[in-house]
Amino acid sequence: MDGSGPGGQGDVLLRATGVEKRYGGVRALRGVDFEVRAGEVHALVGENGAGKSTLIKIVSGAETADGGTVTVAGTALEPGSTQAAMAAGIATVYQEPHLFGELDVAENVFLGRELRHGGRVDRRAQRARVVELLEQIGLDPAIADVRVADLPVAEQQLVSIAKAFAHSARVLVLDEPSAILTDREIEILFAVVRRLRAAGMGVVYISHRLDELAQITDRVTVMRDGLVVAGEPTASLTVRRIAELMVGHAVGGRGRRQRAVDGEEVLAVRGLGRGERFRGLDLTVRAGEVVALYGLVGSGTSDIARALYGITPATDGVVAVDGRQVRLRSPRAAAAAGITLLPGNRKAQGVFGDKSIAFNISSAHLGFLSRSGWFDARREREVAEHYISEIAIKAPGPDTLVGNLSGGNAQKVVLARQLVEKPRVLVMEEPTQGVDVGAKEEIHRLVLELAAAGSAVLVISTDLAEVLELADRVVVVRRGSVVREFAAGATQADVLAAAAGDAGTTPGGTAADPTSAPTSAPTGAGGTP
Amino acid sequence: MSVLATRPEPAAAATTRRRPVLRGVEGQELVLIGVLAVTWVALSLATDTFLTGGNLRNIVFSVAPVALIGIGMTAVIVTAGIDVSVGSQVAVVIVVVGKLVRDAGVPLLPALAVALVLGGVLGTVNGLLVSYGRIHPIIVTFGTLNVYRFVSLQIFGNEQVSGVPGTFAVLGGGQRGQLLGIPAAFLLAVVLGALMWCYMRFWPTGRHLYAVGGDPLAARLAGVSVRRRVVSAYVLTGVCAGLATCVLIGSGGLVQQNAGAGLELAVIAAVVIGGTSIVGGRGTVLGTLLGALLVGTITSAVTLLGWSSQLTNLFIGVFILIAVGADLLRERRRRSR
């Protein structure tokens, strides 16, 4: 599948051959071949679930493959051992830096392999070496003595790269390093990566920001559904082409058919912003409409969600519900304003795991479920039983503890909670994250039914297929600003290219591909009554 | 008490990347030294009795057991653990060693060895349960607190041990327990504290304690033997408890069944006041020793000033809250950047 070996003058440092991995019934990797040469920066791209992170985990020893081999400079790598991978020269820098806040930078770099002098840690030698490293990387050498907890996250990440550098790594794996960095920080990162490339290192660069690839990578390997679908020199690819390869050709029009929504404007957002996270957000959602806010991880969509939930309030702009201006200073204020929330990250935010389904559903509606001040336990049960059958929550009964349910079913319980009283505005973040396919369809059906019944629904998601399946309009956010809006029926490649920074996309304008619209009907998405 | 008005932490270090004023002495330790100095000056002015050799000897001697156990406890809490069973460990060791020296006439050094080994064994049980049993440390040691107390009561056999000879008098509070006029038990705590401070600061395995408490998963990935470090901290605490027991029976005489009861709270108070973070990853033995001294000073001061002894609890409580509050503020300031 590999094209012509481009900047392939260097020796092959890392080679994965026929790597397979299963999780339960899911084939995460189906015979993947991948190689990195000395002196090249090799991009690894693919949608969420394509298998990139599984491949990386196998290469760095955090997971054991079910089949296939990994060799480093021709020597087979002992599987499933992070120590062996590190010893072979593979250094992995994860998105969240794993550093020790109370130790200083020099100590972090050498932790576990301290330089010693008579049994003691030789701080002077470590410091000297780290100062040298920091200078090479272009960081202020004075931070060698600074505790890591006192550094900004971006510098912490560069420190983890310095750490890889210090241990004479030959292959450096960068897992979405730019997702949490600002532009200036990304420039520093790129300078470091170029220096490593010049020094003959092989770099694996994982990123969702496709516009970066032309700047920094020599070759691009695209994964989809556990397979490598392309491996070509970066110079021969456009952002648009990469996006197409990522989503595949078969999925032309999974999106909804366009339909007229003429309900009154329910949610209106003007100029919403918060520091560098996002700015100037304008958005309206009408009654009966589903609007999706789509952006890559780190684009600012989750910050927008948090602002609308009142968790971290916005600093600029105004929000109005039904024409009435509201201040979203807390989740409670958001609820009072008529905004019903379905937060992402259910495990942490949404459920009481050690309580029953009935309790979880009723907990937000104690007033609604009470008669003259007394809580009506029988009605609580009735409501719970109704939703268990209505949205097919797989559980023996309303008394089952939510902690014992699968992720998808727990998700449905949280959704059911929001439906007891029909919401005026429903804001959902990643409504189907970590949910199996069947549950996903049920949840999508519910969302569309809610909209059909007159709710204004805003879906904030990084799941492209979901966005296109649900939305009447897709608003694409990149680097904290709206870059483009699509009507229903847009192709995945269009939306992805816009979100990933295709220079060719012109802001504004709807780009519904007319040829794809007719094929979009049989997806269970036509939820109008 | 003007000390309470003292800021818990200097306003330094916000964004400036400065190196510490005194290498190796941290902000909270400087504050504690300041608070101690202010308290001592105030007390010497307010009373005639505070600044006397006898009183100072009393204070530092009474601080010794807490300081000794605090040395081990600092390591445990830095690994994000806790050991609430130290009081019961003391009870087991005190009855065993007390009976040995009284009934079998065991001399000083063998008796000391028994105390240290026995304490080490009790600590090992805690450490193994925490690291291999994967049970939360507070649950493990709360369990062993009760089990060890039961074991000690069985050995006591419904009676206190009276007539214990002064085998450990060199560590006791009397004349024989002094070196150059300073209680030997306190000197021992200072020497051991200094050794431990160096270990946690300069030795690789000592630094790894901080890594384990900061992020155990990352520590494992960096090649740190996490379990071994955790076990070592609890073993050390047990050995320290054994040593502290020798100080407690140093003056001879009577060993009672409630020996060591509540000691864990005094030790944890000293560690926390000393600036060790209860969530792990930060703290020093120097801070713990200063914390123990502060607690001892307050206890003495309340007595000397003729105040109700209940005020001691109030002051210790307030200091704990200030210390923990300062820790939280520091964390929050870091997060907000």
From TrEMBL, chain A:
Region Disordered, annotated ranges: 501-529
Molecular function, one GO term: ATP binding
Keywords assigned: ATP-binding, Nucleotide-binding, Repeat, Transport
Gene3D superfamilies hit by this protein: P-loop containing nucleotide triphosphate hydrolases
Keyword Transport attributed: yes
Low complexity: bias regions: 501-523
SUPFAM superfamilies in alphabetical order: P-loop containing nucleoside triphosphate hydrolases
Pfam families associated with the record: ABC_tran
CDD domains in the cross-refs: ABC_Carb_Monos_I, ABC_Carb_Monos_II
The keyword ATP-binding appears for this protein: yes
The protein, known as: Sugar ABC transporter ATP-binding protein
InterPro entries (UniProt xref): AAA+_ATPase, ABC_carbohydrate_import_ATPase, ABC_transporter-like_ATP-bd, ABC_transporter-like_CS, P-loop_NTPase
All residue ranges annotated as the ABC transporter domain in the record: 14-250, 261-504
PROSITE patterns from the UniProt entry: ABC_TRANSPORTER_1 (PS00211), ABC_TRANSPORTER_2 (PS50893)
From TrEMBL, chain B:
Keyword vocabulary terms for this entry: Cell membrane, Membrane, Transmembrane, Transmembrane helix
Residues that span the membrane, as ranges: 30-47, 59-82, 108-130, 137-157, 177-199, 230-255, 261-279, 286-305, 311-329
Main location per the UniProt record: membrane
CDD domains from the UniProt entry: TM_PBP1_transp_AraH_like (cd06579)
Keyword Transmembrane helix in annotation: yes
Organism: Kineococcus glutinatus
Topology relative to the membrane: Multi-pass membrane protein
Protein name from the UniProt record: ABC transporter permease
Keyword Transmembrane helix tagged: yes
Subcellular location: Cell membrane
